[in-house]
TrEMBL record:
Pfam families, A to Z: FCD, GntR
Gene3D superfamilies per the UniProt record, alphabetical: GntR ligand-binding domain-like (1.20.120.530), Winged helix-like DNA-binding domain superfamily/Winged helix DNA-binding domain (1.10.10.10)
Biased composition (Low complexity): 295-305
Gene Ontology MF annotations: DNA binding; DNA-binding transcription factor activity
Record field: compositional bias (Polar residues): 324-336
Protein name: GntR family transcriptional regulator
Organism encoding this protein: Alcaligenes faecalis
Alphabetized UniProt keyword annotations: DNA-binding, Transcription, Transcription regulation
Domain HTH gntR-type: 6-74
Matching SMART domains: FCD, HTH_GNTR
Region feature (Disordered): 290-336
Length: 336
């Protein structure tokens, strides 16, 4: 019997998949309504509806003789699931809210009434979307009335500053005496990156690509043995979330990034930390240059300045050549 899924169930289904990816849960993991209600901040009734929706899609299901529902697809198998599920209206409004903030439509604060008028939603749905933004770290509810936007990476200058910090921190973390190569962590990250490189890059949505990229960098930072480095990398990922939601997905760039991530993992698994650190520094430098240039173009387009041009005018030949060099360097080290 087909479930009567509504927009809340679909939204929670997407959030449940984010939870699965964040926790790196594997097929066969037991899902309980109570634990999911606590993790997602929702009541058990809509959680039940989200599970029924995912059961229809073959993502969760029963495993007799055991009782309850279990994951049928693990975190490393979710490469194209978001595309199969489609996007709920709440997800579309959520992304539009992020884009409106970055384009300057909203200031530092937002009232529920203003959001209701702009997006044509009930107060309940507006609060649900704003609560999601607060949960993801870029809004907070004010003590009085309304909501506030928290400081974020919202332009080319802030983006460049963030990448400068990361270029100083992340490669150096690999060279610390306390850095410990954990084969279990590297294997888990590799599965996720390989699934995207093998074709998932064609279908992955904004949230999934953001999560995969953030997981890679946070996993490597966690191996440093320094909790403050790990916290800093996690915070930088939270600050750049809005930018990832705003931009049009460059599918080819996604594939290149996955290949670069895999090349770094190859070297770490061989114990070549110095080489992996150098490749990571170059990877972050390339990403910084591409992202800052993209944000500058977007600013020009919004302001109507002459010289603004479309994404189709940007050549990807040089980044592709650099990705080939990443792979060749990793292969050369593996043959030594």
């Amino acid at each position: 019997m087909k479930s009567q899924s509504n927009s809340l169930h679909v939204t929670l289904a997407h959030r449940l998949l984010d939870y699965v990816r964040a926790g790196h849960l594997q097929a066969g993991h037991h899902l309980t309504e109570q634990s999911l209600a606590e993790a997602l901040g929702a009541s058990r009734s809509p959680i039940r509806g989200a599970l029924a929706y995912l059961a229809e899609k073959g993502i969760v299901g029963a495993q007799p003789p055991r009782r309850g529902l279990y994951l049928l697809k693990g975190a490393d198998q979710l490469g194209v699931i978001e595309e199969e599920l489609g996007t709920s209206q709440d997800d579309q409004i959520y992304l539009q809210l992020a884009r409106d903030k970055l384009s300057g439509i909203w200031g530092d604060t937002l009232s529920e009434n203003d959001a209701m008028r702009r997006y044509g939603l009930t107060r309940e749905r507006v609060r649900r979307i704003l609560a999601r933004a607060a949960n993801e770290g870029w809004m907070e509810q004010r003590a009085s009335k309304g909501w506030s936007f928290l400081p974020m990476i919202d332009g080319p200058q802030a983006c460049e500053e963030s990448y400068t910090l990361r270029q100083m921190l992340e490669p150096a973390a690999m060279l610390l005496p306390g850095f410990a190569i954990d084969s279990t962590v590297l294997r888990r990250v590799r599965l996720q990156q390989q699934a995207l490189a093998d074709g998932g890059w064609r279908h992955a949505g904004h949230a999934e690509m953001y999560q995969a990229n953030a997981t890679f960098h946070e996993a490597l930072a966690s191996l440093s043995g320094n909790r403050f480095i790990a916290q800093t990398v996690t915070r930088q990922n939270q600050l750049r979330r809005l930018l990832e939601y705003q931009e049009t997905l460059d599918r080819e760039r996604i594939r290149r990034q996955c290949l670069e991530h895999l090349a770094i993992l190859d070297l770490l698994e061989k114990g070549e930390r110095a080489q992996a650190s150098a490749l990571l520094a170059r990877h972050l430098g390339n990403a910084s240059e591409e992202k800052v240039q993209q944000l500058e173009r977007q600013q020009q387009q919004r302001s109507g300045q002459p010289g603004a041009f479309s994404e189709s005018m940007v050549s990807h030949a040089e980044p592709m050549e650099e990705t080939a060099q990443f792979s060749l360097m990793a292969q050369a080290k593996n043959q030594e």
